[in-house]
Write a structure and sequence with these properties.
By secondary structure, this protein is of the alpha/beta class. The protein has two domains: 73 residues, Roll (Ubiquitin-like (UB roll)), CATH 3.10.20.310; 117 residues, Cell division protein FtsQ/DivIB (Rossmann fold), CATH 3.40.50.11690. The protein is built from six helices and twelve strands.
């Protein structure tokens, strides 16, 4: 009993003189290394440069919100995971957005994500064969949604053209052109999908649906 009392009194004395702030403010916990992983498009150096402010910040008091604020500015980053590794490292796992098309809007270029969000355009070899959209983001978003709804073979499309009349033309990879009407173009697209199954499909280059209830083949 006396032994336990002595131990308890000793611990109390130690704790009463211990200052945790001294430990927490120790340079031992200052960030010395930032590890980036799972990134394929963005370079490690680019991400680390954006996060230079983290070096020498105490890992214990680091607010991950500060990192999120910086990373969210990069449109190629869809999401990320942040892990503290004591005493002085952080690991950031990057999940990049995969572009589905290139938007040509006037003289500007952007990549478009699956959700039709704009992504900064960087000349990347792996995305050089993406389909090109000549039009605006909002109109394409609605059009793309309709294409997916009817399971149109998107991998065939090389170029999307939006005209001032708000109608679309599609150029597919075998140089065939689909000219769609302003309204009820879904029925035209379905008709084209059925025609692809016909033996004489390859005989035609232009499928013109602009006149209501008519198809002109050239």
């Amino acid at each position: 009993m006396k032994k336990r009392l002595v131990i308890a009194l000793t611990l109390l004395a130690l704790l009463s003189t211990y200052k945790p702030s001294k430990l927490f403010l120790s340079n031992k916990f200052n960030i010395k290394e930032i590890k980036i992983e799972n990134n394929f498009i963005l370079k490690d150096e680019k991400i680390r440069t954006d996060l230079l402010f983290l070096y020498e910040i105490n890992l214990i008091f680091l607010k991950t919100a500060d990192i999120k604020k910086i990373l969210k500015k990069n449109s190629f980053i869809e999401s990320f995971e942040i892990k503290k590794i004591y005493p002085n490292k952080i690991k950031i796992k990057i999940f990049e957005t995969k572009p589905i098309a290139i938007l040509q809007y006037g003289k500007k270029k952007f990549y478009l994500s699956q959700n039709i969000d704009l992504i900064e355009y960087i000349n990347l070899e792996e995305y050089k064969n993406l389909p090109i959209v000549f039009g605006n983001k909002e109109s394409f978003k609605d059009f793309y949604k309709d294409l997916k709804k009817i399971n149109f073979p998107l991998d065939l499309i090389k170029k999307y053209y939006l005209y001032e009349s708000k109608r679309w033309d599609l150029e597919i990879y075998n140089k065939k052109i689909i000219k769609l009407p302003v309204k009820n173009y879904i029925e035209s697209l379905k008709n084209f999908m059925n025609l692809r199954k016909k033996n004489n499909f390859d005989n035609f280059k232009v499928f013109d649906y602009r006149v209501a209830n008519q198809l002109i083949l050239k």
